Amino acid sequence: MTSAPVLYGAPYSVYVRAVRLALEEKGVPYRLEPIDVFAETGPPAALLERQPFGRIPAFEHDGFKLYEAGAIERYVDEAFPGPALQPSAPRERARVNQLISILDSYAYRTLVWDIYVERVSNPRKGRLPDEARIQAALPKAQLCLRAIGELMDGGPCLAGAALTLADLHAAPMFAYFTLAPEAGQLLDDEPAIKAWWAGMSQRPAMHATAPPA
Ligand SMILES: N[C@@H](CCC(=O)N[C@@H](CS)C(=O)NCC(=O)O)C(=O)O
């Protein structure tokens, strides 16, 4: 009998939500231990003990401690029963990992920080958006979407017919990105991703993990 895993982080976090989506889709009960990584006093000492780079999420299951969202997601998929979130065929599995790497390396900063945070989040806090940063991000966002769209193998999911960790890794980024008006035009040019997001955003796991307004 194993105990319920504990996820350390905040509901607003893209990467915390990606792990929560994996837990939800697998049907694994878990506890979310709140940690505010953007506290004025800096990342809490308790977080740095679990995640030396001061990022969220961190994770523990039966004494096994882990950080890095992609690694946690793969562990959750492999250690718990429930629907498989990774294909077993090498090429399909490689495609899922390729998409996750693209999301981490190129999409996260561009879609979330350069576009969503500047256009939506900062103005809500009374700060002016950095228009130059947004303009510089638009071709990078277009490139990200085009690359992801080209890898979609007929959909409806990012890595083909079945839901995988690639979808769950991407969805929290798109949840923020699509709040920016710039996303509308960019997604009009990528109908397969637009159709994916229309379905993905309505999954019960997405509703269950929606960040507080
Ligand atoms: N490579 C890390 C990235 C995690 C990450 O960047 N998390 C963000 C929140 S979504 C964070 O902790 N940001 C704090 C900061 O940038 O100081 C992972 O995969 O877990």
TrEMBL record:
An example molecular function term from Gene Ontology annotations: glutathione binding
Recorded hits in InterPro entries, A to Z, give:
Glutathione-S-Trfase_C-like, Glutathione-S-Trfase_C_sf, Glutathione_S-Trfase, Glutathione_S-Trfase_N, GST_C, Thioredoxin-like_sf
Keyword list (alphabetical) reads: Transferase
The terms describing its cellular component in GO are: cytoplasm
Catalytic activity, EC: 2.5.1.18
The residues covered by the GST N-terminal domain are: 3-84
Known Gene3D superfamilies for this protein?
A: 1.20.1050.10, Glutaredoxin (3.40.30.10)
Give the transmembrane ranges. Answer: none
Claim: Protein biosynthesis is one of the keywords in the record: no
Q: Does the keyword DNA-binding apply?
A: no
Pfam families recorded for this chain? GST_C, GST_N_3
Q: Identify the residues that the record assigns to the GST C-terminal domain, covering every copy.
A: 89-213
| Name of the featured protein | glutathione transferase
